[in-house]
């Protein structure tokens, strides 16, 4: 299974990637946070794990863009605990929000 992990904290990204790869998931990350959709379209993930706070554009923006072209499951993974973030993510088409 191909997972696109959109996380700007490199330490967290590397830990999550390591854990997912031990279960034979193929994990890709983002090098240029202004070109998330380019990676999304070329990698063709089966699931997206998306942070809210990202450089350039936030995760809500990228969720909206992904929903314009795909129904791939999108899971938000964030340390933000504002209930409105959860509501907003669901309204934009995310499938779950994990804190």
From TrEMBL:
Pfam families: Response_reg (PF00072). The modification 4-aspartylphosphate is found at residue 51. InterPro entries: CheY-like_superfamily, Sig_transdc_resp-reg_receiver, WalR-like. Keywords: Cytoplasm, DNA-binding, Phosphoprotein, Transcription, Transcription regulation. Its main location: cytoplasm. Residues 2-99 form the Response regulatory domain. GO terms for biological process: regulation of DNA-templated transcription. It is found in: Cytoplasm. One of its GO terms (cellular component) is cytosol. GO terms for molecular function: phosphorelay response regulator activity; transcription cis-regulatory region binding. PANTHER family: REGULATOR OF RPOS, SENSORY TRANSDUCTION PROTEIN BCER. This is Response regulator protein GraR. It comes from Staphylococcus aureus.
